[in-house]
Amino acid sequence: MALLPVTPPAGIVKNGTDYANKGRWVDGNLVRFENGYLKPIGGWTKLRATALDGEPIGMYAYKDNAGNPVLAVGTRQKIYVLYDNTWTDITPTGFVNAASADPLGYGAYRYNKEDYGDARSQSGLPLQQGHFSFDNWGEHLIFCFSGDGKIYQWRPDSAGGSPDTIGTVVSNAPINNQAILVTNERHLVAIGAGGDPRKVAWSDREDNTNWTSKATNTAGDVQIPTGGRALLGIKYQNDVIIFSDTGIDRMSYVGSPFVYGISAAGSNCKAVSRRSVVQTGNFLAWMGENAYFIYDGVVREIPCEVHDFVYDNLNVPGRNASWGGHNSNFNEIWWGFPVGTSQYRPNKYIIWNYRENTWSIGSLDRGCWIDQGAFDYPIAGDSNGFVYEHESTTLSNSPNLNSDVPFCTSGPIELGNGDNYVQCNQIIPDEEANTLPGVTISFKGKFTPLGSETDFGSFTFENDGYTDARFTARQVQMTVTGSTTQDFQVGNIRLNVRTRGKR
Q1: To 10 degrees, the CA torsion angle through 241, 244, 246, 247?
Q2: What is the C-alpha R_g of the chain?
């Protein structure tokens, strides 16, 4: 008898074939890798009992001057604020929403795709979905939707100290903008200002109603040096990183008389979606058109072990709906994206644990995500208009989980040296039984890579740490399935085996 370790290294690998990834995890759902262990992700609870009007496609959270949390949610129909435990529709008068601003790309597709004269089942053109950008001017919420272009504010302390009932236009601010932000120097910045695709404009310092540049103020503007369109601005340390449809530019405070200067910071690294850019404390990360990127002073491609899972299945016309979010408590970045020929809403996700450099994959209906901060948990929204707090409960208490369970499946695992077939008598985990409640393990065995499969199990881990499991094979694929009712962790699993004859 011998004890044979069979647990793959941490992280899912989804590039190439399963056999090319033998000895690794190759599939999974609702799981993460933390400190080398396989664990379930946390569950979620509704932050609001009823759905919002429209799918959430943008979120922002901060605290007012008294320390009260403010959550702003932009949907395809309206803008909402959660403040003082009350949800309020603050949609401005005359606001152009995503439902009316987003083109559908109907009637266009690649040459020789589908029969001539037939109605197209999908469009080959990108669905250029609108984008919300939010920031706060002190305790006042500032927001802009790219399909509308105006800059609005909402104040929790308007007349008489009561909140504004709706958002109102910021006086004298440019219109037809792509995005906004507030710099560390207290300038309100408009990206693609006034309809000029390369223009970045900013207000006077401490006065977001003064946009006319004079010798007596610090208002001004600059053109991005690349030939693309400015789409989004993200604060990074003391600078602002401008994302365009060709790459990124770096805008830095230089003082009078120019106030801000701008220079190219990266090319051929276009974000697949403005929603896909993620800000962490030390770097920016985003999903590109065919790769993932990081910026920490220099643009670098992130080696991605689930690249093929994403880009071989991505719905290209709907790729602009892809989103990214930070889950700082677990050192993770989540990206969601649409998969399926008619799927224009994100239904798949990947997780990158940047501390341990591991990847996970799965299925989840989410359209936007923000990290914990003003609120205790990360917050996300789904296509039905519901808003959730993530990592706040077990999976079993999570709305719309349906029949999904956490699981992870390996590629082929050679038992022994591959020359002989092996008889397994027991499964022995290296963890105490109380870390594996409700966890089952099953195998698909083969005698040759192309041979027929035989199912073995499933086997439930016993309390004494020894699980009887009698089967014979030369190679196996292993699936670990967890419980939704409680946490678990899976470390090194060993098989008690005996070498048998050759076949």
Answers
A1: 10
A2: 26
DSSP strand pairing (440-446 vs 43-46): unpaired
The whole-angstrom separation of Cα 165 and Cα 62 is: 19
Nearest to 469 by CA among 6, 28, 36: 6
| Residues comprising the chain, all counted | 503
Residue 381's contacts (CB-CB under 8 Å, 6 or more residues apart) are 52, 55, 56, 57, 59, 73, 75, 366, 367, 368, 387, 388
Nearest to 63 by CA among 372, 454, 368: 372
Q: Domains along the chain? A: 2-41+406-502 (2.60.120)
Q: Where are the beta strands (DSSP E) in 90-186?
A: 132-137, 140-145, 151-154, 168-169, 179-182
Element (H, E) at 307: helix 307-311
Which tokens belong to 141? 């919420």
Q: Which residues contact 185 (CB under 8 A, 6 or more apart)?
A: 205, 253
Quick check: bond before 257 cis, omega within 30?
A: yes
**Cα separation values, 12 from 189, 287, 364, 461, Å:** 41, 18, 17, 23
Q: Whole-angstrom Cα distance, residue 277 to residue 268?
A: 15
Residue 432, amino acid: E
- CB-CB contact of 144 with 180 (8 Å): yes
Q: Quick check: 140 and 153 in contact, CB under 8 A? A: yes
* pLDDT tens for each residue of 113-161: 455 555 444 444 445 678 999 999 999 999 999 999 999 999 999 877 8
Interacting residues of 214 by C-beta distance below 8 A, sequence separation 6+: none
Bridge partners (DSSP) listed for residue 74: 58, 79
User: CB neighbours (10 Å) of residue 384?
Assistant: 14
Q: Strand 140-145's sheet: what is its strand order?
A: 132-137, 140-145, 151-154, 168-169
User: What's the pTM value of the predicted model, to 2 decimals?
Assistant: 0.92
Among 286, 402, 270, which Cα is nearest to 347's? Answer: 402
The DSSP call for residue 12 is B
pLDDT in tens, 411-442: 999 886 656 778 888 998 876 656 777 889 99
